[in-house]
Amino acid sequence: MPIIDVHAHVGRWQFHLTAGDADANLRQMDRYGIDHQLVSASEAVVYDAVAGNAALYKALATRPRLHGYAVVNPNRIDESAADLRRCLDTGRFVGVKIHTHYPGRLPGSPEMAAAFDLVAEAGVPLLLHTWGSEVTLLPELVEARPGLRVIVGHAGGDAWREAARAAAACDRLYLEHCRTATDAGRIAYARETGVPVERILFGTDSTLIDPCVSLGVIRDAHFAPDELERVLWRNAAELFGLKV
Amino acid sequence: MPPREGPQAAPLPATPTGTAPSATASARPVGAYPWLEPTSEEYVGWDVDVLYGPWPRHDRDTGLAEVRAHLAASPVAGALALSTRGVLYDDAGGNAETVRDLADCPELRPVGTVDLRDALTAEARLDELGAAGVRFLRLFTVDQGAEPDFPGYRRVVRLAVERGMALLHDGDPRRFGPPLTGCGADVVFLDLHAYLLADFLLLARDEPGFRATTRMLSAPDSIERVVESVGSRHLVFGSRTPFMDLSPQTLKLRYARIPADDRAAIATRNVEELLA
């Protein structure tokens, strides 16, 4: 069975760790048996979205196992709109990544609303960084935009209960649980709350976090074999239209 | 010695550094997910971060029997544990409960605590722990709202260090580390995040007694950087069972690119030194 990692990054981080270049992603993927990885550029996330997306495209050109997220900066919506069109036209970007911490905008802000509009119009999935009670706003924001599908990145972080309830209330929200602090019971809680296994995805936050952390979370979730297949690759393949 | 003998850790296969990564995904037999099953490289002699009992903010509570069963089904052979009663409600009662409960648990060693909000009673608490042979004092600065410059916190730390107790310390090592330097303290930082690693390494260079758990050292080379920079003696295993998933922690140990002897030191030997 293959594995698709829907939450990863290419590029350096500003901490005492080795992230490497796109080949470092591939080496990690080989190590853990991850076949495909959906990546955004760390440069685009923390610094310059347009420049980071452009640099990522060059890395994707020769690495078919990597698939790009174009980073949209809610504070540069017109610039990001034009850049998103360019990225999607390459055929190597399959979704959008929006962070909240680095641009300093949360769901509920007018800037984020405009960014959601942009992604909905583009018709590709959105990987949204979530870390806090703002996840409670997502069902309403998504329902107001037909066709918008949002991966709740980190499953809300500390607010994983709220994220689970949000995903249970909206069938276009998907949970992805990568995180350093692997609180016990997050996946069980989501399922008990009503999130179907078809909307749980596998993500790692590589190369910021070693993939074995998220693999351990999957191991401790004790999925049945058919559920494991869904979480590790089938759900992602269907969401992004990837041929595996 | 750990309470039960585990398999001998074998060295990891060499990482193919310098080899070209695969341009296309490699075919694997159906169901071939090696990480789904624990291996000998995940064996842990001592987990320093285990609790049991009620925790009101959590959805459910986990009692001692369930924690023991959870550990028994894992690669973790032994643990330093304490009742949550002493953390949240009654330090004297909680310490007594921990000592009493764990007397019949050969795989568990008791950890004591002192409520930092009432440090005037710290001396009595520490005397009680010493009389019970408790070697480890766990501090809950986050849950009890203590800061490094609070008089109560400083008194508790001074008394514990004077008694030769090893501190199991929560919170940010960048804030709590500096006041603990220069006094020969044995300290295990339980909340060292990969983002804070550079500052911890600067502290550890001058403090042989400073250690950290691997729990939140989640970056691809966090553990390796500690081993290469200051040595494996500065790391121990701590899972925060039952509040955290255990497999991510043992898998980190398994996949760390370190010699088998360093892995054994982190998983077992460093804590045995503190227990001695």
UniProtKB/TrEMBL annotation, chain A:
Pfam families: Amidohydro_2 (PF04909). Keywords: Hydrolase, Lyase. The keyword Zinc-finger does not apply. GO terms for cellular component: cytosol. One of its GO terms (biological process) is secondary metabolic process. Residues 4-242 form the Amidohydrolase-related domain. GO terms for molecular function: carboxy-lyase activity; hydrolase activity. SUPFAM superfamilies: Metallo-dependent hydrolases (SSF51556). This is Metal-dependent hydrolase.
UniProtKB/TrEMBL annotation, chain B:
Residues 1-26 are annotated as: Disordered. It comes from Streptomyces changanensis. It comes from the Bacteria. Residues 9-26 have a biased composition (Low complexity). This is Amidohydrolase.
